[in-house]
Amino acid sequence: MIVQVVGAILSGSLALLADAAHMFTDASALVIALIASAVAARPADDRRTFGYQRAEVFGALINAIILILLSAWVAFEGVSRLLHPTEVDVSGPVMLTVAVVGLIANGISMWLLSAAQRTSINVRGAYLEVMGDLIGSAMVIVAAIIIVTTGWAPADAIASLIIAAMIIPRAIALLREVFSVLAESAPKGTAVSDIRRHLLGYPGVTGVHDVHVWQLTRGAPVFTAHVSVQPQALADDGAATLLAQLQTCLAEHFDVEHSRFQIEPDPNGRGGAADCEAAHA
User: Fold this and answer.
1) Is 242 inside any structural domain?
2) Distance (Å, rounded) from C-alpha 228 to C-alpha 175?
3) Residue range 151-180: average pLDDT?
4) How confident is the model over 51-103, as pLDDT tens digits?
5) Are residues 160 and 53 in the same domain?
6) Are residue 206 and residue 152 in the same domain, yes or no?
7) DSSP letters spanning 33-81
8) Are 136 and 22 in contact (CB under 8 A)?
9) Are 20 and 106 in contact (CB under 8 A)?
10) What span, in angstroms and rounded, lies between the C-alpha atoms of 19 and 142?
11) Predicted TM-score of the model (pTM)
12) Could you tell me if 14 and 135 lie in one domain?
């Protein structure tokens, strides 16, 4: 970031300064992500029975807001530069050199974050911001090459606008995911009808109702349901056996490690004839 700021001052590049501002945002966002991850790792207590995993979601929310505000600033400055050209000459060689350094640094950062971003919404927020930096550095390199070869200075402002345009959709996507978690919507790709069909496949199970599926954060789904069962299926510790089978079914086929079932006797119902394996097949 410091190299980019110095390079922007020496070269007069708005795109490089915008990329530096984005790098500054990433630095602060990574601090937020680090703090949120540390808080999320704290164990549950009597007050916060699910623990602190939602801290990751709030960290991602802050990241998304920062991205949107930054994009608006970059777009404003880019349009202003195009509408009111300044007399500052943009130094293409300096701009190109600094942009290449930024591209390498961002590439290394993305590689370091690539594994964890698949399971943590918080780390994914940081990953998307670094990806924005990587793309921004690439845009700056293209603009610098144009300036070096043709002397066309508006390429710098246009690169700034492209950076802003590429950041906003990712920020909105992250914001939508955060709202989905906070609204306790079913995780993406989870079909409640499929889960109900699996559970109804167990002998003695006559109904599945009051089903709720949500996630504490990315990769931490929670499932609750009331299960109606024929009384004879509950005899001789049948309830404990069935409960273990249902929880195993959720864990193995739907990656739901945290599930709760309320088993209710249903003397008038008819149980299923298959097990979870058959239903899954």
Assistant:
1) yes
2) 38
3) 84
4) 777 777 887 888 788 878 888 888 888 888 888 766 557 788 899 999 999 89
5) yes
6) no
7) HHHHHHHHTSPP-SSSTTTTTHHHHHHHHHHHHHHHHHHHHHHHHHHHH
8) yes
9) no
10) 14
11) 0.69
12) yes
How many Cα neighbours within 13 Å face the side chain of 277?
A: 0
46 Cβ contact partners less than 8 Å away, ≥ 6 residues apart: none
Convert the pLDDT of each residue in 120-159 to its tens digit: 776 787 788 788 788 888 989 999 999 899 888 888 889 8
In single-letter form, the type of residue at position 245 comes to: Q
Q: What is the CATH number of the domain that holds 245?
A: 3.30.70.1350
d(Cα 78, Cα 70) in Å, to the nearest integer? 12
Place of tokens 């300044």: 86
Confidence class for position 273, pLDDT limits 50, 70, 90? very low
Q: Is residue 187 part of a domain?
A: no
Distances (CA, A) of 19 to 45, 130, 178, 266: 42, 11, 25, 64
Q: What would the DSSP string read from start to end of the chain?
A: -HHHHHHHHHHT-HHHHHHHHHHHHHHHHHHHHHHHHHHHTSPP-SSSTTTTTHHHHHHHHHHHHHHHHHHHHHHHHHHHHHHS--SPPP-HHHHHHHHHHHHHHHHHHHHHHTTGGGT-HHHHHHHHHHHHHHHHHHHHHHHHHHHHHH--THHHHHHHHHHHHHHHHHHHHHHHHHHHHHTTPPPTT--HHHHHHHHHTSBTEEEEEEEEEEESSTT-EEEEEEEEE-GGGGTTTHHHHHHHHHHHHHHHHH---EEEEEEEE-TT---BSS-HHHHH-
List residues bridging with 262 in a β-sheet: 226
Containing structural domain, residue 230 = 192-280
> Is residue 245 domain-shared with residue 147, that is, in the same domain?
no
